[in-house]
Please model this.
Amino acid sequence: MGWLPEGHRCDLCSKRVVAKGGVFCGRRRADASAAGCRAAVCWRCMNRAARESFGKVKTTKAEFASLGSDAWWMHEQCMSKADARDYYGNDEGESLDDDGAREKGDDGEQADEEARFAWE
Model:
């Protein structure tokens, strides 16, 4: 779970990545259980994947790095409702719109302008 190590293959395009060249689908929950399919996804595939097949939950290298050592990401279909709440921070009133961007919370501010992709 977390970053892809150098030389790991993306499960979508089969290309080898540089260190931190993508992420694994998964997380370690507070109760120590593991969740996610553990698929390896490079940043290029994360950016290009169609919502219909991939799902609308995506992250960027910059966003993932900003979350520190506790960062995690999972496919939408791999998430439980509790995982989705933890990922989106719904206890703060955030949710995703149809484009996968975070919508306005109860305070009326935009939580995340647009999903941005950080090329390596």
